[in-house]
Amino acid sequence: MANKHRNIDQGRLQELADEYCDECINNKKILLTRSGKKVEIEDRLIPTVDYFLSYWLRKQDPEFQKEMIGSRQFYRVIKDKSHPLCQTIKNIRADFDALAVDIVANEGKGIFYAKNRLGMTDRIKKETDQKVKISFKN
Asked: Quick check: is 40 in a domain?
C-alpha cells in the first residue's frame, strides 16, 4: 500500500515553528512620545497555528508552505497517531500554547484568546448540596 501522507521534512517544520516563536517573542512596535520621538517597545505576539500555517510560512518559505498541510489537516494530524507528523505537530502546538500562556499571564494580553483557546475562565464554579423538603398539607 502506498504512503497516503505527504513527505514533509519534520526537522524543517520544527525549525520554522521555532523561528516563528522567536519572532513572536522578539516583536517590537514603534510608538510616538509626546515630544514626537519614535520609541521601540517590546510587544510579544501570541502565536497561533492558523497564522503560522497560512501567512507566516508563506512569507518565510513559500515552497515549504506549498508542501505543508492546511490548518484543518493540522488538527486532524494531532488526532491521528499513525501520521508521521503527529508528534512534531503536537510539540509545535505545545510550544505555541506555552508561549501564549506566558504572554497572557505576564502581560495581560489576549484575554479572549486565553478564555477561548486555552480554556481559562473567570467564572466561579459553584456547587451546592442543598436539600429541598417539600410537604403538602391538606
From this structure: yes
Kind and range of the H or E run holding 30: strand 28-32
Residue 135 grid cell: 410537604
The answer to whether residue 29 is domain-embedded is yes
- Asked if 103 contacts 110 with a C-beta cutoff of 8 angstroms, the reply is yes
Could you read off the pLDDT tens digit of each residue along the chain, which spans 138 residues?
445 667 788 899 999 999 999 999 999 999 999 999 999 999 999 998 889 988 898 899 888 888 776 666 777 888 888 888 889 989 999 999 999 888 877 776 666 666 666 666 666 666 667 777 777 776
How many domains is the chain built from?
1
Per the domain annotation, does 2 fall within a domain? no
Eight-class DSSP state of 34? T
Q: Residue 126: inside a domain, yes or no?
A: no
Cα separation of 43 and 53, whole Å?
22
Taking the model in full, what pTM does it have?
A: 0.69
From CA 90, how far away is CA 33, in angstroms rounded?
42
| Type and span of the H or E element at 67 | helix 62-67
**Domain limits for position 82:** 10-117
